[in-house]
Amino acid sequence: MKKILVLATGGTIASTPHQDGLAPGLGINQLARYFEHSQDVLIHFKVLMNKDSTNMQPEDWVTMAQTIDENSNVYDSFIITHGTDTMAYTAAGLSYLLNGLNKTIVITGSQVPVSFKRTDAKKNIKDALTFAQKANLPGVFIVFDGKAILGTRAVKMRTKSYDAFASINYPYIASIDEQNLRISKHPKPEPSPFPNHIGICPNVFLLKVFPGLAPEFFSFLRDHTKGLIIESFGNGGLPFEKRDLATGVARLVQAGIPVIITTQCLEEGQNMALYEVGKRVADAGGITAGDMNTEAIVAKLMWVLSQTNNPETVRKMMQTPIAHDLDYI
């Protein structure tokens, strides 16, 4: 008999109408009613928190990871019910915090509360149960709208439609339809490249570059962050004429602050060596993130900085594939 632990964290799936709008309010016994399952599966439920996922914090990822780690000898799989707004960040965060754990961890939720007459929640719950029971794939996955997505590759694309998430720069893992599971991509098991570590340093900053961004902003960041992620233009370029952001990167790196460079383009990653505007950033010490998505970069940098501040070690850890988050640098 397969044992599954469902961890409830709130989100739209458990929301009910309140005076100020929808907010998590469904009790665990009410939520559990929707987890219909066969007799050869034993399901237990536990409420970890009851939050709109907008209020989800990195410290909450640690709580989830510790709970799963502490129960890993008891249960075969885990399902987390979660709000959609930060679900991709949580999926990425757990992929690093539980790196090396040989269990299937499924995160699901909905765009419409489960108690509403028309809702995607019931299907997502059924699909999450099917995947947790049958997939036998270690790692963290988002199951949503009949698809399974690797935890480090998911991005929320839509605010209303049921197909809220997309898999970026990596194939979908599986499709689920009426308890039929079709696995289309078997992620090859990866040996854990670093010691298991459940810890987070949330003091990072994410900066989206735009035409006209003043380089003086980098002086503020030097005193207020331990790591910076820059969403650059195109292939990793930053302006160096009139408003010289490339020099700003160099000054942060000289101050011992790692600067991770990604792109504002969702697909196909970056190649900082292709143009002068990118090569100058690389020469300044910017660390390319290749084809990683922003959600994974944020979570990974927090996880890395909780273990080391050494610039070269940070570079090595950020550029080492973990949970299939990175195909090239």
Please give a handful of descriptors for the protein shown.
about 325 residues; alpha/beta; Rossmann fold; eight-stranded mixed β-sheet; four-stranded parallel β-sheet
Describe the structure.
By secondary structure, this protein is of the alpha/beta class. The chain folds into two domains: 2-183, L-asparaginase, N-terminal domain (Rossmann fold, 3-Layer(aba) Sandwich); 204-318, Rossmann fold, CATH 3.40.50. It is built from nine helices and 16 strands. The chain has helices at residues 28-32, 58-70, 87-97, 121-134, 217-222, 245-254, 276-283, 294-305, 311-318; strands at residues 2-10, 15-18, 21-24, 41-51, 77-81, 104-108, 139-144, 147-150, 154-156, 165-167, 174-177, 180-183, 204-208, 227-232, 259-263, 287-288. The strands form four sheets. It has an eight-stranded mixed sheet with strand order 4-1-5-6-7-8-11-12, with helices on both faces. The protein has a four-stranded parallel sheet with strand order 13-14-15-16, with helices on both faces. β9 and β10 form a beta hairpin. α3 (87-97) crosses α8 and α6 packs parallel to α7. The longest helix has 14 residues, at 121-134. The radius of gyration is 20 Å and the shape is elongated. The mean pLDDT is 94.
